[in-house]
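Exercise: predict the fold of this chain.
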Amino acid sequence: MTMPSTAPSRRRRGLRLSALAAVAAAGALLAGNANSAEAVPPEVISRWDNEIVHSNALSPGFSGFLGTGAYTITAKLYAENTGASEINYLCTIGTGPNSDGDITEVTLAPHSRHGIFLNVVHNYPSTGPLSFACSKPAGAPQVLMKQVKITAVKVNTLDNQPFG
């Protein structure tokens, strides 16, 4: 009498690995990375501060430089009005004078907080500036800028077009 083997067959394991490779290849095609030999892993550059006190008209912001290449850049925070009067609050992220950027404007009710999100994509032909700052009217109450995160992801290609 022969007993059936309980060990998985090598052929079946090979088929599963081949199927997994086919799924991974299809995912690469859908993601636009058909030729993975040319794709370069993204570079991620991030800066953060958990609390910035914004007292003057212009906040302490961020300014730095990014190397040559295509980037998607996001900034997020929540702004907390510490005073008893309403504040018109404006935050910007930019990639240089007369270049790509984003603006978010919110009205902060007294003793309230509001999420602020910014996004920009830009192709730097050479090393270039990245800036982020918020502004409020002079004499307005302090704003606490909390959980400030700015992240730039260098990507292989960039397609930035207006809605059709």
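Check your answer against the key: Residues 70 and 158 are 6 Å apart (CA to CA).
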